[in-house]
Amino acid sequence: MTTNTRCQAAHATDTSPCEGARQAVRLRDGKGNVKLGCVHHAARAIASIGGLTVAAGPHGYQGYAWGDSASRTAIRRAKDLAPFDWQQQIA
Ligand SMILES: [Zn+2]
Questions:
Q1: Ligand 1: distance of its center to the CA of 36 in Å?
Q2: Residue at 31 is within a domain
Q3: Which range marks the domain in which residue 64 is found?
Q4: Which of the listed residues 14, 57, 64, 89 has the most CB atoms within 10 Å of its CB?
Q5: How far is the CA of 61 from the centre of ligand 1 (A)?
Q6: Which residues contact 1 (CB under 8 A, 6 or more apart)?
């Protein structure tokens, strides 16, 4: 599969597919660069890259229960992830 259908937060070496809306979470780095990502890849980016500001994206509430936004879900998941964890799944 091509990689250009995935969200902006997906790392180049991370081949996993997006989960849900691809513009669910807005990530801003220390330089002011903004990327929109799905919950899955946003969580991995948060766990791997320091200093990100996390906010809800344009689709941040689609598919998520009221009161639990995609950005909060991504932050919560990131706490259980090791940095660049997809690179450590190779047997
Ligand atoms: Zn994604």
A1: 9
A2: yes
A3: 25-82
A4: 57
A5: 15
A6: 17
